[in-house]
Amino acid sequence: MVEWGSRPAGGRRGILMGRVVRRIPNGVVLACLGVAAAVVGVALSYTALGGQFDNNLYDWFFRLSPARGGPMQAAVLAIDDRTLLETGGVRGMRRALALALERVAAVKPAAVAVDLTLADEGDEAEDAALAAAFAKTPGLVLACEMLADGSGWQDPIGRFRAHAAGVGHVGALPGPYDEINRRIPLERVAGKDRRWAMSLEVLRVVRGGGAVDSSPFDVAAGGVVIRSRWDEGRPMRVRYRDPAAMIRVPVLEVLRDPAAAAKLSGKVVFAGVTAQSAMSDRLFTPLSVGMSMPGVEIHAQAFETMARGDFLEDAPPAYGLLLALGVGLALAAVFSLLDGWQAWSAAAALLLAVHVLPYAAFTRGVVLAPAGIYAPAWLAGLACGSWKYFVVRRRLRESEAATARYQQAFHFVAHEMRTPLTAIQGSSELITRYKLPEEKQKELGRMINAESKRLARMITTFLDVEKLTAGQMELRRSQFELRELVDTCVERARPLSERKNIALNCCELPAVSLDGDRELLEYAVYNLVTNAIKYSPAGTEVRIFAETRRGALRLSVRDQGIGMSADEVKSIFTKFYRTKKAIASGETGTGIGLSIVDQIVSHHGGRIDVESEPDKGSCFTVELPAVTIH
Ligand code: ADP
Fold first, then answer.
1. Shortest CA distance to 592 belongs to which of 565, 574, 612?
2. How many Cα atoms sit within 13 Å of 500 on the Cβ side?
3. pLDDT tens readout for residues 497-512
4. Which of 32, 33, 241, 535 is the most exposed place for a label (fewest CB within 10 A)?
5. pLDDT at res. 11
6. For 369, which DSSP code?
7. 574 phi and psi, to 5 degrees?
8. How confident is the model at residue 14 (pLDDT cuts 50, 70, 90)?
9. Percentage helix, strand, coil, to 5, in the chain?
10. Hey, whose CA ends up nearest to atom 26 of ligand 1?
11. Does ligand 1 have an atom closer than 6 angstroms to the CB of 608?
12. Three-class SS string for 534-587?
């Protein structure tokens, strides 16, 4: 079929541009979109919003997937509100603790960590009592705190420190957006003085007292290796267990009933302030419901995490990026390989899997930042999905337009072929029905032959124009005389002009040879001549003449017909356009002929000029380059 779509502006350039666009395969476009969206998504996940989202989801996972059960090795010797109230508050704390620790030491705990800053001298008698209690305490670990300016440490005074098997810092790492304490720093350095976390010191002491080993990637104490990077400040996620599972013995209880200390026998005891009044030493944890957790319990929980090896490790950032890129590419592949509901279902399944992944990883002790996967996945899904949607819509529109064009073309072809077919049908009927004289029979036979040839030529022409338009065909060039071409057209058009009583005159033509596709040029000239006859009233003249100008041939067909306004002339090469007067004239037409003529002439490197005036007539001039003039 003929490609009836209008020729893009700029002709060949348009066709070329069309080809360039088609050369980028859908899969490549989708892959680029998927990767770009994934990268943007990863960048977004690093914003404060992404961080908050990650934290919230982490806490949710935390509550959904509680730490392993079993009895806890850590226990708390609590300086609670009642203890403070009844032992003289902070001032009487050392004395009370000293007495309680004496009793705890007697029941042989595995170790005792004291989460109190004992950096200053107190009452001599109280300090002496506390030092004496420390001397009897097995596996004593004391606390140190970093000075506010980070220049050094507030260490316990010498008389206490002398009895300590270790000194550890009691810092925490509350979250940057919500102050929830999910991690503790295993190492802190003030100046050049490095201290390990108190909980780690306790682990070291409990597990034989060897040194803490460290590499840039991990820390090892007492046979437990904790993966924690030096360049990230050596954080460790605390796998908090239900606070209700922790044995908590108030100092006051031990003071009143020495037998109460028995609950701490064999335990790793963390002694410290749990009083509500000591707000500064309390932090919220992922398990907190309205109630914050005392610092001493956070250290006890951190020790428990290490002792049980129940770690939650962050996946390296590179994994997150690779995963995001993988998801982006997978979504691109889905939309590139599948269509319709299959593509959308596969994309939805992939998104679902992506949403479950961080939780699945969490249950296996790996923390994947959810925002770093969700944001890339959604963005890639949206980008690839929208692209696919719009491409499909565009294709649908294109195919609808193509169908409409083919229908119009079909009607046109059917109509154009009707004329020769009618002639063939009529003549053959005459021959078969009536006994005609031999001469008449021969004439009708010749007519059938000529019209069949014309039909065949018409089909060839349509097919050729289609191929030319699609850029699939070279012109079948040959050299021929202009005069021959014009004569053929005039002879074929003469019956039409005679029927309308129009004089069809051909002036003396210059002797030139043309180099081009004879069939197509014949079609073009014949079209101009028949148009001139169709759109002229009886008793007028259609004149064909030609001249050569600077090596080019200018062949004109002039009529004295209905003519056209300047505005109408601008549109006559557009497919299916017909002037009002042409429609009113009663002449059948489709408005396609001139657009084909235009294509044929421009494929020959020529052009068409039109001069016309309403009711006066028109003159169509075809200019073809490079002719041989004899
Ligand atoms: P068709 O003749 O089948 O309608 P064409 O593409 O050959 O289609 O011509 C397009 C329109 O240009 C015609 O419908 C007519 O309005 C106008 N036209 C073409 N040739 C002439 C002419 N010689 N005189 C006046 N109008 C013309």
1. 574
2. 21
3. 999 999 999 998 999 9
4. 32
5. 32
6. -
7. -85, 135
8. very low
9. 55, 20, 30
10. 563
11. no
12. HCCCCCCEEEEEEEEECCEEEEEEECCCCCCCHHHHHHCCCCCCCCHHHHHCCC
- 562 in contact with ligand 1, CB cutoff 6 A: yes
Cα gap 585→579, rounded to integer Å:
10
Q: CB of 529 closer than 6 A to ligand 1?
A: no
Contact 74, 268 (CB under 8 A): yes
| DSSP element (H, E) containing 593 | helix 593-603
**Ligand 1 within 6 A of CB of 591:** yes
Q: What is the pLDDT of residue 7?
A: 32
Distance from the CA of 531 to the center of ligand 1, in angstroms?
Answer: 6
Decide: 15 and 471 in contact? Cβ < 8 Å.
yes
Q: Rounded to whole angstroms, how far apart are CA atoms 400 and 54?
A: 48
* Structure-token pair, residue 85: 């109230």
| Cα 565 to Cα 579: distance, rounded to the nearest angstrom | 9
Rounded to an integer, what distance in angstroms lies between the CA atom of residue 92 and that of residue 88? 5
Distance 600 CA to ligand 1 centre (A): 17
Nearest CA to ligand 1 atom 11: 578
Cβ–ligand 1 contact at 531 (below 6 Å): yes
- Residue 361: other Cβ atoms inside 10 A: 20
Regarding the beta carbon of 589 and ligand 1, being less than 6 Å apart is answered yes
Distance 585 CA to ligand 1 centre (A): 11
Q: For the purposes of burial, counting CB atoms within 10 Å of the CB of 441, is it exposed (0-12), middle (13-18) or buried (19 or more)?
A: middle
Tokens of 581: 């007067």
pTM over 0.85: no
Interatomic CA distance for residues 629 and 552, integer angstroms: 9
Give, for ligand 1, the residue of 529, 535, 577 to mutate: max count of ligand atoms closer than 8 Å to Cβ.
535
Largest separation between any pair of C-alpha atoms in the chain:
153
- Name the residue at shortest CA distance from atom 13 of ligand 1: 578
Cβ of 578 below 6 Å from ligand 1: yes
